[in-house]
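Lesson 9: reading folded outputs for more than one chain in a single document. The general rule is that every protein is listed as its sequence immediately followed by its structure tokens, and records are never interleaved. Here is the first one.
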Amino acid sequence: MRNLRLIARLDIKGPNLIKGIHLEGLRVIGVPNVYALKYYAQGVDELIYMDCVASLYGRNHLGEIVRAAAQDIFVPMTVGGGIRSIADATEILRCGADKVAINTAAVANPQLITDIARRFGSQCMVLSIEAKQIGPDRWEVYTANGRERTGLDVIEWVKRGVRMGAGEILLTSIDREGTRKGFDTALVKAVTSEINVPVIASGGMGKPEDLVKVAREGDVDAVAMADILHYNRSDLVKIRATAQSAGLAVRPYEIA
């Protein structure tokens, strides 16, 4: 049985860690790497850094934050937002990222998925998908941090992305993001049943038990959590214990 990975997601605007609801109404939480270090000390398996306004400005601004984190944090880091080319990916990987997550640029230029997978390996190429439900068992792909419709069907897009080289999917439900209502397990299951690469469920985790539900019903490989950690409504120690009590395989970790 593979381990379920526990991932802290850090959405960033400028120098600040932020949090919104449905990817809107962004509220400043604090200094990103203060929170990253706290989650690392609690045994987080991975971190996701997402530049939420990168699409507006056409570039990723997280280089210095990621470089500083890499000095003290030794778990895989995925960085997304504003990565539009091989050169952009190269730069953020040199700063210390292990993987790049691409959404808007991949929709605009799907060949970028293949180009990054060929240059750095598919394990480095995370296809980030922002999904919004538009009907029964139907979801549409959005870009630009949930602001722009694409007309793309999520299931068709994720299958195409995997065929083109994506090695992992970061699947964010816009409908659930920041709501604390739990993950959109129907969406997650619809995606995991169609592909054979790891899927990270993101958006909606309101309590530790939500992780158990999406792992069992959605068959995910990892969960990304933000609100529940940033607002201290739970911590990774309790979340890990909940997963273990439910019989889910997670990486053993003891706080020194």
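And here is the second record, again sequence then tokens.
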Amino acid sequence: MAPSTRRLALREICGYRAGDKGDIANVAIFADDDETYAMIVEQVTAERVKEHFGAFVTGRVDRYRVDNVRALNFVMHGALGGGGTRTLRADNLGKTLGGALVRLEIDVPDALATRRRARPDVSWAEAILRALPR
């Protein structure tokens, strides 16, 4: 019997860093433990990342494994509409694509799904939002 899984966005289980140069964006995702890293190595391929961005990335996507820090680094060519000074895109930086990549959903075994990344407590903001007039 196959283990039970859930669909989760990468942001629930991975961190990321991103940058850019010219028309190339660089996004690295990081896992907190070896099991999560093995899972993202299997599921987050260059082809899947290319498909995730669709027409937004016009060139190839290269994936580099960085096993010693449990990271996958994606170099996306033709990702910034010609580059920061040439594009008409409103959000034309690699950082924007980093946030977009961690929205990619993958199948996560239930045993790993509970290992979500630590998040800041923002309950104070929820109280403010509830108090606003509607």
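What the second record shows: The first strand starts at residue 5 and ends at 9.
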